[in-house]
Predict the 3D structure of the following.
Amino acid sequence: MSYTLRRHSVVLNGHRTSISVEDQFWNQLRIIADSRSCSINALITAIDSSRVGTLSSAIRLFVLEDTLEKASHLKAS
């Protein structure tokens, strides 16, 4: 399995910055943003406001936590 790390430009609090995350995490982040009816920039801003460590790591952990939460709901059904 191949993992490609890519830089993505985002706007946080009116400032342009870039983050590096694997395509798989970025694609899942887009799905989460769509499911919450918000932009990817708004979702990343929310992640940024409560992060510890780097933004890239915070995004990966956010996606992991969201995935685990959805999986636990499926098991409970």
About this structure: The mean pLDDT is 92. The chain has three helices and two strands. Helices lie at 23-35, 40-49, 55-76. The radius of gyration is 13 Å.
